Each structure stands twice: as C-alpha cells, then as structure tokens.
Amino acid sequence: MELHLTLIFNGLATGMLIFLLAAGLSLIFGLMSVLNFAHGALFMFGAYMGTWVYILIGGWNSPWGNLNFFVGMIAAALIGVVLGYLVERFTVRQVYGNHLRQILITTGVMLVVAELVKVFWGPNLIRVVQPEFLQGHFLVGDVRLTYYRVFIILFSTMILILLLFMLKKSKIGVVVRAGVENSQMVQALGINIRKVFTLVFIFGTMLACIGGYMWGPFQGQVNPGMGLDLMLIAFIVVAIGGLGSVAGSAIAAVLVGLSEAYMAYYFPPGSLAVNMLIMAAVLLIKPTGLLGAGR
Amino acid sequence: MKTTTKVTAYTNPSSGLNPLRIITWQKGAWIVCCLMLFAVPLLITKNSYLFLLTNIFIWSVFAMSYNLLLGFTGIISFGHAMFFGIGAYSLALTARHVPGGEVGFILAILATVVICFVLSLIVGLLSLRLRDTFYALITLAVATIFVIIAEQWRSMTMGNDGFNFTASLSRDLFGFINLLDRRHVYYIALIFLIGMFLLLKRFIDSPVGRTLQAIRDNEARAASLGYAVLNYKLISNILAGVMAGLAGVVYAISIRFVSPDSVLGVENTIDVLLMTVIGGVGTLLGPIIGAAVVEVSSHYLMGLANIHPIFERWVILFGVVFILIILFFPAGIVGTIKQKFLSKKKGVSS
C-alpha cells in the first residue's frame, strides 16, 4: 500500500511538472493550430538560464539560498517572456496559416535554441540542488513525502487554478476560449486574434521556462538532452487532453505522470510505449482528445 | 510550402520517329553527368573523397524518400530515420550473424523491405486519418520507441555503443563485389542513386503521383472528385519508407558501423529534413543538391573545429540557414533557380 501511495505521489509531482510544459503547448496549438516544435528547446533554455542565475548569485549553499531559488525562477520567467516574443515575432508570425511551414520553422528554432544552450553553457550536464527549505522529507503514515515534490504539486496546482480562473473570468480568457472554438468567428467580431495569440505564445513559453527551471532540482541536474525527451511527452499529453483545453492537459499530464512513475518502478524502458498506447487508445475512441473542442 | 504544379508538355509525338531527336540536350546533359560520376573513382584515388561522395549519394536517396512525403504528399514526418535505421541494423545484424555473404545480404534486403512495408503501413493507417499535424507527432513517438529498443536490447544491438562489423563484410559478394573496397561501394551507391532517381521520377509522373500532388495542393477538392485520399497517402508513405530502408542498407555497407545515434536517432531525421528544405522541397533534384551541400559543408566545418571551438556547434549555422530559407526562399535552391529560370523564359515568349 505504501508503495502505491508513494508511486502515486511521485506520479502527481511528475505530472504537474509536465503540465507546466503542456499547458502552453496546448493553448498555442488550440488557438492557431501551431504545433510548436521549439517548445522543448525553449523549456530547456529557461531551465539553463534560471539555473545559471541561481548558481551565479550564490546557489543553494549561501545564506540567501532560499531567496536565490526564487530569483532564479524569476530569471527563467523573464527569459521565457523575451524568447517567446522573439520567436513569435520573427518566425511563427511570418508563416501564419501554413501548418507545414509552421512545423518546419519551429523545428529550425528548436535546432538553433538547443545549440545556443550548448554554446553558452557547454554540452555537459550541470548539477543543481533544491534550496534548504525544500530539502528533506516528512512522513505521513509510512509514506515518505519529499518537500520539493510537495512544493511542485502545490505550485503547479496554483498555476492551474490561476489559468482556469483567467480563462473563465477575464476578458482575454474569454477571447482565448472563443478563439480555440472558432478563431475565424472571433476575427469577424473585430478582435485582433493574432495579438491575443502573441500573448498566449509568450505566456506559454514563460510557463515552459518556469517548468524547466523547476525540473532541474527535481532531477538534480540540467542537461542538453532534456528538451527533446520532455517535449515528446508534452505532445502526448496535449493529444490526450485535447487541443486547447487547459483542464484536459492537467488531467492528461497527471495520467501520464502516474504511468511514468509506475513504469519507472516496474519496467523503465517501457514508459514511452505505455504513454503511446494511452494516446492511441484515446485518439481511437475520441479523436479530439479527452476535453478537446469538437472540431 | 505550396509549389505550383506545372503541367509539363510531353514530347512531341512526331519526334519519336527520329532516334536522334529522342535525346534532347537535357537528357544528354544527364547522361554526361552520370558518365562523369562513373569516371570519378578512376581519377580520384583518395579514399576519404570517395567516402564523402558515397555518403552524399546515400543521403540523397534518403532525402529523396523524405521529399516524397514532404514535397509531393505534403506531410511532415519526424520518424523517417526509423526506416533508415531498420535497414542499417538489418544489414549489420545479418552480416554478423548469418554466415555466407550472399544469403545474409539478400536476407537483409528482404527483411528491410518487409519490415519497412509493414511498419509504414501500420503507422500510416494509425496517423494519416487524423489531422495532419498528428502525423509528425506519431512518427516522432514511434521512432523514439525504436531508439529505445535499440538502446535496451543490448544482447542484439550492443546498446548505445553500437557495433562495428567490418570484419564480417563479404569480400566476394556474388563473386565480383568486394564490400571492403571503397570503389566498389561507390559504384553500388551510385547505381542505387540512379536507379532510385529514375524510379521516383516514374512514380511522380505516373497517374498515382499526379493524384498525390493534387491531394497535396487541395485535399478537399481531390476527395470530392472521388479519390480515396487516404489510400494515395498510404502508397506514398510505404514507398518512402521502403526507399529509406534500402538507403539504410547501403549506408551500413558504407560506414561499417551502426549505433542508435548514427542511424536511428531523431537527429538523422532532422538532417534529412535540412537537406530536403535547403535543396528544394517538391523538386526531384533538390534533395540531391541539398544532401551534397549539407554533407560537404558539415565535413569541412567539422574540420574547422581545430581552429576555433565555435565550429563544433556548426548545427547552429544550419539552423539559421534553414529558418532563413523557409522565410525567404521556401522553394529551396533548386526551386528558386527553377522559378527564376521559368519566369525569364515566360518573359521572352510573351
């Protein structure tokens, strides 16, 4: 029983981290049908940038270690905003409306950004540790709960609630939801959907960069291969959850996180295959994904 | 990536009577080019240049098969390297485990064709009926599963390290081919390239190929005209898969070594994507030019790494060039030249 509770707890933590990556991807895809292949590379760039700042200002050993962690997170978020704007403005926007060219150009961006990481920080992995107040664990019954994972779950849940609230209540959220349903109709009503899309792209990239930064202490390191591996999982999550649905992404991310945790315990090489099977099953039964718009 | 399909005027039927007129200057140029390529091993004795040319030929075939998907069908695959890798691993494994060169060689080709056929059929059936962007996603996932299999099945594939099989390559295949002689491998690759080029040209100009391009340009219209869109896409998917697999077989002969990174990984798909886009999407000659440009420049850029370490990151250069080409010259090298040439010709005639 403890085993299963531990695995479920780990799966939740992994899933909620994946959700940070997948939420932006899902909205970008849902709003403009852009399959953003650069998302994983941007996620990695954010991870490196945040970690670099975190270590530069003293890291986890200095007396300000707790504060440093959050400074690093802000740095990751800022670079996410900058990169998101640059990528959208100079590449994605230029090939608007052509799916094939959008995939191609984001692949090009992925190549450049992933190589830039190696130029700036070298091809080797960088070790990174969580700050002092998130180290260690506590026991509930016989289940060991790591503070950092609890933090990840709480933080990501907060983001999820914030996102859902914004989508439900704010004006721009209404426009985004309407755009996912039918973007031409929104344009016909006199709303500049491309501006909204730019905002969503920036916001999604920022979330991915924060997620990447938090992924570092989770794994104990950042490395140049993390982008592509996680991007594939995020794509699967988006496909399962439904394009453009934040709640669907959250459910799918937790599902995939749980399957990752269980497979990591029983048969690690098979985890991707299991995720693929889940995706295939969902797509065969409901091609729009769990909570996708009926298009 | 919309390229305008031009309705080519077929050769004037009256010219068929005179045997000399069948050979137009274009065909003559082709034949001269081929003859020159056949003469290369007689002039160049340095093995490294022959090796480079051989790899260009093989990657050209791989890129041509990719172009069949990207340029002529309008679907983008991120898992094309799995077919290439399956071909390479088939040859490597049969070379190592099956005694008797000919049996192993034929077995490798048969296994490649059968596996690639079945795999591309299954992947196509699963993904082509969904929206177009899912094809990229599903091929990427399936290819990653193959990489994981190659990494984990250590007893068979030696995992991440890969293995070398130079010693087990046949020295007298069918009595006259020495697979360890660079010149023989060069001729194999060249004949393979010419054969595949002619096959692809036939296919593109056939009714099936024409329909495929019609589907690429306007899927809804082709479907409403009564064409079974899915079946046509499946045909192109299978042909591309089998071609890539055969290219993998020849590649394994040339590099005599297989590992997940060198033949199976996603990097290989991205390389072939670069070649196709740089050379010219939707043109027959484009992938060959693209393969030559990418292979030659990466060969020399890698050599420059001794001068300054920045050249180790030469991929970044390709990435930037790739983005610029998609933004400003979506037709690639060959396509852009063709457009310029055609518009000039039109200007003269009108």
TrEMBL record, chain A:
Key word Transport present: yes
Compartments where located: Cell membrane
Signal sequence bounds: none
InterPro entries named among the record's database cross-references: ABC_transp_permease, BCAA_transport_permease
Pfam family, one: BPD_transp_2
TM region(s), chain numbering: 12-35, 42-61, 67-87, 99-121, 147-167, 196-218, 230-258, 265-285
Predominant location category: membrane
Record organism: Evansella vedderi
Family: Belongs to the binding-protein-dependent transport system permease family. LivHM subfamily.
Domain of life assignment: Bacteria
This protein's name: Branched-chain amino acid transport system permease protein
Topology versus the membrane: Multi-pass membrane protein
Automatic annotation (TrEMBL), chain B:
Main location per the UniProt record: membrane
UniProt xrefs under PANTHER family: ABC TRANSPORTER ATP-BINDING PROTEIN (PTHR30482:SF17), HIGH-AFFINITY BRANCHED-CHAIN AMINO ACID TRANSPORT SYSTEM PERMEASE (PTHR30482)
Topology term for the membrane: Multi-pass membrane protein
Family annotation (InterPro entries): ABC_transp_permease, LivM-like
Transmembrane segments: 22-43, 50-69, 75-93, 105-128, 134-150, 185-204, 234-258, 270-294, 314-337
Entry keyword Cell membrane: yes
UniProt KW keywords: Cell membrane, Membrane, Transmembrane, Transmembrane helix
The keyword Transmembrane helix appears for this protein: yes
Record's protein name: Branched-chain amino acid transport system permease protein
Organism ancestry: Bacteria, Bacillati, Bacillota, Bacilli, Bacillales
Localisation: Cell membrane
